[in-house]
Design brief:
By secondary structure, the protein is mainly α. The protein is about 70% helix and about 0% strand. The chain has four helices and no strands. The protein is globular and about 50 Å long.
């Protein structure tokens, strides 16, 4: 299959899995935990701007922690990577936490908490993997 074939298969499996998760979340019943927080809505709207920017910028900025970008390790960080090595994952984590706090139901608790844990733990995991593969660079 090779490296490119594996990446393609992994991408397809990821999209299918994400589609399934979103469909399951949309079909889940609304079982209240703390309920919708009306006071949180203006805060959530404000937080969605940096979350969205981090996701878009993270996808478009060269980054040594991205897939197949290990060759950039020796280069000085540019753009948002000077602030965070993981702008995409930080944006997803902020998006998930914002929705987790505001929605207040069991399905949102499971769905958004999972996204937040995976995104934020992913930053630690990627850094550890890069250190093992590349050393202190």
């Amino acid at each position: 299959m090779g490296e490119n074939g594996y990446r393609a298969a992994f991408a397809v499996a990821s999209v299918v899995g994400l589609g399934w998760l979103v469909a399951a979340y949309n079909r889940a019943p609304y079982l209240v935990t703390w309920g919708m927080l009306e006071r949180w809505k203006p805060v959530a709207i404000i937080l969605m701007l940096p979350a969205s920017l981090l996701v878009v910028i993270g996808l478009t900025t060269p980054n040594p922690t991205s897939v197949a970008q290990e060759g950039r390790v020796g280069q000085p960080p540019q753009g948002i990577v000077r602030v965070t090595r993981h702008p995409f994952l930080t944006g997803v984590g902020l998006w998930a936490l914002t929705h987790l706090i505001g929605n207040g139901d069991v399905a949102s608790l499971v769905f958004f908490a999972t996204w937040a844990v995976v995104a934020l733990a992913g930053t630690v995991s990627i850094d550890a993997k890069r250190r093992r593969l590349l050393g202190g660079a």
